[in-house]
Write a structure and sequence with these properties.
2 domains, two-stranded parallel sheet, extended, Mn_catalase (chains A, B, C, D, E, F)
Amino acid sequence: MFRHQKELQFEVKVERPDPLFARQVQEVLGGQFGEMTVMMQYLFQGFNCRGDEKYKDMLMDIGTEEIGHVEMLCALISQLLDGAKPEDQEQAAKDPVTAAIMGGINPQHLLVSGLGGLPTSSTGVPWNGSYIVASGNLLADMRSNLHAESQGRLQVARLYHMTQDESVRATLRKMLARDRYHQYQWMAAIQELEEKNGVVVPASFPPEAEQESQPEAYEFWNLSEGEESSEGLWATGSAPDGTGNYVYISNPVAKGQIYSAKIPATELHHDLDHKTFDK
Amino acid sequence: MFRHQKELQFEVKVERPDPLFARQVQEVLGGQFGEMTVMMQYLFQGFNCRGDEKYKDMLMDIGTEEIGHVEMLCALISQLLDGAKPEDQEQAAKDPVTAAIMGGINPQHLLVSGLGGLPTSSTGVPWNGSYIVASGNLLADMRSNLHAESQGRLQVARLYHMTQDESVRATLRKMLARDRYHQYQWMAAIQELEEKNGVVVPASFPPEAEQESQPEAYEFWNLSEGEESSEGLWATGSAPDGTGNYVYISNPVAKGQIYSAKIPATELHHDLDHKTFDK
Amino acid sequence: MFRHQKELQFEVKVERPDPLFARQVQEVLGGQFGEMTVMMQYLFQGFNCRGDEKYKDMLMDIGTEEIGHVEMLCALISQLLDGAKPEDQEQAAKDPVTAAIMGGINPQHLLVSGLGGLPTSSTGVPWNGSYIVASGNLLADMRSNLHAESQGRLQVARLYHMTQDESVRATLRKMLARDRYHQYQWMAAIQELEEKNGVVVPASFPPEAEQESQPEAYEFWNLSEGEESSEGLWATGSAPDGTGNYVYISNPVAKGQIYSAKIPATELHHDLDHKTFDK
Amino acid sequence: MFRHQKELQFEVKVERPDPLFARQVQEVLGGQFGEMTVMMQYLFQGFNCRGDEKYKDMLMDIGTEEIGHVEMLCALISQLLDGAKPEDQEQAAKDPVTAAIMGGINPQHLLVSGLGGLPTSSTGVPWNGSYIVASGNLLADMRSNLHAESQGRLQVARLYHMTQDESVRATLRKMLARDRYHQYQWMAAIQELEEKNGVVVPASFPPEAEQESQPEAYEFWNLSEGEESSEGLWATGSAPDGTGNYVYISNPVAKGQIYSAKIPATELHHDLDHKTFDK
Amino acid sequence: MFRHQKELQFEVKVERPDPLFARQVQEVLGGQFGEMTVMMQYLFQGFNCRGDEKYKDMLMDIGTEEIGHVEMLCALISQLLDGAKPEDQEQAAKDPVTAAIMGGINPQHLLVSGLGGLPTSSTGVPWNGSYIVASGNLLADMRSNLHAESQGRLQVARLYHMTQDESVRATLRKMLARDRYHQYQWMAAIQELEEKNGVVVPASFPPEAEQESQPEAYEFWNLSEGEESSEGLWATGSAPDGTGNYVYISNPVAKGQIYSAKIPATELHHDLDHKTFDK
Amino acid sequence: MFRHQKELQFEVKVERPDPLFARQVQEVLGGQFGEMTVMMQYLFQGFNCRGDEKYKDMLMDIGTEEIGHVEMLCALISQLLDGAKPEDQEQAAKDPVTAAIMGGINPQHLLVSGLGGLPTSSTGVPWNGSYIVASGNLLADMRSNLHAESQGRLQVARLYHMTQDESVRATLRKMLARDRYHQYQWMAAIQELEEKNGVVVPASFPPEAEQESQPEAYEFWNLSEGEESSEGLWATGSAPDGTGNYVYISNPVAKGQIYSAKIPATELHHDLDHKTFDK
């Protein structure tokens, strides 16, 4: 069960409204890597956690914090939109700056939300549940979390340069700091899990090691012209499992058959030779 | 520019058709972490790559391989569906096993694709572009790739237990092996990039270190009851940047204000006090 | 079966084209609460109606009217776009107002529809079937209809302030009038149904009254700090069913257990302790 | 800012697992009217609230409660899936009941979530942000809330008949009770707001009453054959605004023009007469 | 403006309910090529038509007919679901056929629509506006219409084999007949337009013929191994424009450059060399 | 299996960056009829092809070419975005042209992709799998391909007028030429297939010719007022099957029944008469 307190986690102020910037902030609220994503991802991972209380508790801590980040971003967008109103297009047609604002603003901030944050990205696409994952495998999920915080912090950093409003920047700096810590945190969790189970997800497959001990588990297939890709750590040396060495295949040869599919039943109406229809 | 050769990368055969399993295989073809996702993600990252040819070439190698994995999964689904046809419901009503198959099959395998693979998940949701990311930041993107291969291999491993068809299992083992190698590969790339730029994404923010050197970059906020979360590596010790030590805050206090939003212009029709409307 | 006549339901004219406004009008055509929504919602409710001809006939009356509203909005957008053409960006770069128009216009009005209305919102998101509901319960559905007309009229009212084109405003006033009437209409239907079956949806659950006569049916849980919420009609007095009195719980206590999920089968590869895998 | 406590709001138990029912419960978790919808809708309305603290506080109370309902449903689905595992299809082919379960289960419960709740509907469609609304107009939004609770309780009531597991039913009864109270609550809020501002949304349009005092605000247009629709409260008597009487128009006549759109610029390539192209 | 009459266009009856078949019929109601698609596509094309009344009138005729087809399919699904109810899972567990039905039924037919047609496909994905197109170019759109009727009739034909209910089949035969006629109709319209403007869409580009008279307009690039593709009509002979002859390029050579993208501004945080950040 | 070579198929250059145009180019990359659509459509049709190697090989040739077109468009967008960076809004507020650019640019080109192409349309909607079809019926699919190339070339032609950058126009001309050839190609394939099997899809239904030889297969129903539609080729003469003559029905009469749906089981809670509930 959850409880809410009135104070925001961090102060959220603006020096002056900026409806164009409000549109862009939507990306880190309701976009692919916005706060709605990390909030829902950590909550679902926490709700679904099976068996290790330490991780479950940690996921619930962070998931609960992220609900408050959605709250903060709504407070930010709300202030950036303060005073905006449905403008007269005719007046805009005479004043280029007004015109630009009318052209660049998210129309749903006026028409749909009445100056509030929307559960959508900066282009107005609604947030959806396929942005998140809770797989039941902790290592897989912590890697998803690290990727989400990395993409999220990258976007906030880019956003930071789009404004010179020092109050807004102060809020963004708090978010950058939290995203930094959350990257540390998932890295620490990943380190723990990799030390316990090894680096491959899932660790528990295959039951018999030989099932998968095939050359393909160590080969780089050079399917794009040029061999610059041979210069990376992935191209030489031994794999973390200690049982294989990387092989760089400069000229890979396909190992499969040429596949020709069967003619289907006539009821599927492929019409390759419809004379034979005799149902 | 691309070219196609007729042989599949690996052999794809089935011992016998299994239309229910065909429905489940769709998850690793057109689901959130299916082969369409890694194919499109690596291709877009490669197409958009700015400045380091080694990584661009490597992304194009793997992206090109993944197109062939989509091809292989279509060949697999195609064979699992061989011989299926629009069944008579009346007959199904008498034969429970037929009924179960009719109930459990993906109806679009009959009605829409005529026994072919679909660009959809196991529940029939179309693949979409928000499954992928190509951010322009290599470390962020390699972490996304590692997460995608981890989730993807996990799903193939689960799928493996749903069939006892040894030919199908042989194909799945090849995919498990490639997913294993691809995890190694992204880990190696991540290691290279972290050694060069540090572990936080993005590395280049802030320009002046002090902008972000705040306590919030090292604090764990215990917002869910219970302190099991204090037992992880993230709760004590120093951060990888060497400039901060983790602090576990058992009883966090909100630092922000209580925010009250302003009354909007009357043209927005919030109707809080509509008497004042005087446009 | 349906028939079409050539006249629009109401006159639709513009004094002059305004492609930016055309983009915004899309919200009330193909957005969440646009005319496509009420059209499809009422038609599906009418098509699926089981058992009361009066309501079925009424739904078909209004649903049929709304098809004509979609037609009217296409005629409006079409005229707002008259004369627009793919502009020269270079010229726009010199003329700020042209630049603003090119920046603010919906690019699909030029590229995709060739100056016609689109089945999308003001941000270009395609209309979809999850905007509507036809549940088979008349009271639930009439409440959905009242909510849709309320949101819809609110958006048209906001849109009204975005233009000073008197011809456009005349059309919008007709739509406001119809949305006013339709609010009256659904309120009247709701009143009839509530008088017959009571105010709770569904009325027919539970069969035995005691199944649900629990304290939870009358309690307000104050889970957000502050007790301003105790001042509403919902906090004191008796419920409309006459069998319970509202209780405002200032300090609610959770009644459930602390839930710990079971460890899953090893075939799910949670990897909590993968040593035990023995399939 | 939010906090989480370990106890669930109400007890959530099952007598025995039931993976088919787990699939159906997804509807009230991540479907159009599931708990994710009311949670996000009330939170966004609360976050965006401008100006009346009583309503803001109330929205935050209920929104916070609903996060806990999402938690409860995940705990329910988790228990319904306990013990499930990727089944052998071959065995299923011999045992019709197993086959039916394998056919009827949501494959993503095994493949994607590893026996956890998903942010999707009963057919596997991801939850998305266009299920919710926070418009800034309190009366419009409270009507949306009443409709959501009505549809939601209807679905829970239908779900109740799909199981005879008494522990599951006990949980569902708690949810029915809360949905009952929440319907009362929104009705009470609507009553307050209607008494203050009148029944039409928005109340503040138009500024001058005459703008909209048109016959169209009181007319029923009988556009579907048959006059059964004349028997409702909406067809006779006076409107709640006291300024108009309902008129039932048996044979409505269109009032608009026959609209013919203009030929577009040749750069749009309508090709009606492409000879005239002379750019 | 539209009107509705009570009779269905054609008789719609069933001999007995069949809830599994109801799920499959959804494909031709709310799927990619269902009746909602042709209805909305023809209506939008008609609403947006600029300049040729014959085609506009024809589009409105067919679009209006298709609204009635949506109505018919709802009547069909409604009857196929007659008598269904939320089943007891426990009973299903004992009776395999009931279990199969419970597993194979669309759960939303019970939970969401209460035994009515849904605006979704056979896998439950909501219909959306990106299924349709109204481009303003008549030839392009008539080709879209021909493709939609071809895919649509194919699906109805496959559906036909899934039932032996003679009443259902009678209705499907009417739909097959109409889809046959509509294919003829769009072919006739295409023939008219091609005779007037030529076969390439758009006809009006380029203004000066030489702009595009390049070898690439007549070349087949053999980018997949094997030359079976050289045997078609597209590989030899002259193009319909009479100005070029097809060329089959067995070994195509890329004509473009090797593209290397520029290093972006540091504010984009690509981190390729973040030392240089100096904002 | 696929291979990649470094050269682009055609040269892709720009004279100067143009971030607004980059947004519009997205339509032909990731929109409904963009290159992602034809790429995925042809590949899936090729992968799923059953039985005629000539068509399979041809589909693989073109599908493989289209992957290279996606690559080219990413290279184009990349160059149009060169040098763009997160702008200072304050500065934009003073300079109208900058303001217009900031308003008109796709914010995700800065925030999400870091100056790269996105898998989305010009309005930012992610590409999705329901844009494509691979039905297993060659004639149906070739018609889909012809429609896709027609819509696609139309959009490129419109785009051409939005820029005067001669380098960009040179690239677009290559695409127009390929789209021209691909229209020829699908027309040639259609001609072959129609000559073999007749013009109706599917050809193989019904088994007995009389099943469908009904008047409805030749009738035009004039359901929209006015008889302009009687002037087309579809209104008179004989059908291509030689067995029927078109009939123009000026005043069509509905042939179906007035359908009244049955009252459902009480467990569905329609509440029409909830007193009878007695479970």
